Amino acid sequence: MLQEIPGAAYLTRAQNHGDACVWCSKVDSEGAALAPLGGAGGWRPYGCAECRTVRLTYVRAYADWRRHVLDCESCRTTWCHDGWSLALTHKIAYEATGKSGGVVCACGCRLSRTSRRLRPYVETMFALRYSHTGACHGREAAPAAPSDVLRPE
User: Fold this and answer.
1) How far apart are CA 144 and CA 105, in angstroms?
2) Looking at per-residue confidence, does 124 or 23 come out higher?
3) Confidence band of 22 (pLDDT split at 50, 70, 90)
4) Strand (E) positions, 38-149?
5) How far apart are the C-alpha atoms of 121 and 132, rounded to whole Å?
6) Terminus of the chain with fewer CB atoms < 10 Å: N or C?
7) What's the confidence (pLDDT) of residue 38?
8) Which strand (E) or helix (H) includes residue 49?
9) How many CB atoms lie within 10 A of CB 21?
10) Could you tell me if 107 and 131 are in contact, meaning their C-beta atoms sit under 8 angstroms apart?
């Protein structure tokens, strides 16, 4: 299973060493019930149950939408009914994480969450990135946001 974890460079010392949730910074003493999220070497990120559930829902919604777009001829140029439903499910899950606003596509174009040009990035599943249909008006190869990196659980 994949989950979204912020990169170590964007976390506090407590978050990097498993003493605080990587998303909300709560600690065990605050009733957060921290659980390990993986990690390697000395990096031991932990997350609270509430944040982990929200983030897993977000990743699953993205993966479901991406899988549909890969298999749907219509969704390569515009959303079909199922694609629209999956895109809205993803938008709701995205907003539940506390994120807001539009997204920056892999090419650098900015699009709203409800733009019918917005697509999940289909080149790789190891980053929650986006692409679009139609002509590109953005800069090339915009870097992924720090919290958009996926790690195996």
Assistant:
1) 9
2) 23
3) very high
4) 46-47, 103-104, 110-111, 118-120, 130-132
5) 8
6) N
7) 83
8) helix 49-71
9) 26
10) yes
The token pair that represents 47 in the structure block: 């997350």
Give dist(CA 69, CA 90) in Å, integer: 13
How far is 133 from 65, CA to CA, in rounded Å? 15
> Which of 143, 118, 106 shows the shortest CA–CA distance to 62?
118
Nearest to 87 by CA among 152, 137, 133: 133
CA distances from 5 to 2, 11, 58 (A): 10, 10, 12
pTM as predicted:
0.76
The tokens for 13 are 């010392």
What tokens appear for 66 in the block?
Answer: 């991406």
Mean pLDDT confidence for 119-139: 75
| Residue with token string 């699953």 | 60
Model confidence band, residue 5 (pLDDT cutoffs 50, 70, 90) = confident
68 in Cβ contact with 79 (< 8 Å) = no
